[in-house]
Amino acid sequence: MTKQALEQFLLQNYSPQTVSSYLFAINHFLKLNPKAKRYKYGNIVKYMEEISARQSNSKYRVVILSAIKKYYDYLVMSGYRNDHPCKRLNIKVNSNQAIQVQDLFSSPELQLLLERENRYKHLDVRNNVLLSLLIYQGLTSDEIIRLTVKDIDLDNGTVYIKASINLNKRTMNLVPRQMILFFNYLQETRPQMLRSKTDKLIITKLGKPITVDSIHAMIAPLRGLFPDRKLNPQTIRMSVICNWLNEKNISLEKVQELAGHKWPGTTEKYIKVNSSHQREMINRYFPSL
Prior knowledge:
By secondary structure, the chain is mainly alpha-helical.
């Protein structure tokens, strides 16, 4: 294993700044643990306990464990190991930092948004394409307005989401019901709506690229479905992330990847305290050096 190879592995999915933080933590871990390549779950828990005794820092604890996980991801990918010793080891975030998940929407509730019809046929198809990206992929409004036609790959059933300042790039699978929806939109609806030359995927009824404000305006009429809760693109995305973790029991690392979060601590805030899927908890932190 070389540092260069590990760095290239990390750069495939993370920004240079994130990779730099991960490499720092990994190198420190390997310096103190020269036999880490053969470590088991208990060894890693012991290491976390040892460093936590020296200093507690909430910013570092999620970074160090995530970095160690990436190190073992690389070993498995490279064939150095057949198992991942700490894949299911996670850190509990202080409850006062948690998302108020009780105010969010369940998957069945989000499905109701797709059942509202629009009096304009073209807008009905367009709206369902947009809503499906919110509900199934959990995209932000900014990510949606930056999507281009080429980002949709119907042959492979995927959508490519570009990186931004706050979120990582990623390629996500389309769900089966999106396939025919996107096909009809790209082949029939969008060409008929188009009024100017643009490669943007989502366009307005005037045929121009949609804006973030327009997405919020499109969601506004749906608020009547849930008058006692705040419905907007942000709370829809938050609900999707919460449901991935707590309804579908998708692993924390996978949800971090799906959501495009740069730090696992951002994802952990969505874990329900009383979730039946019990998470391993480490309440100590990585020492600042």
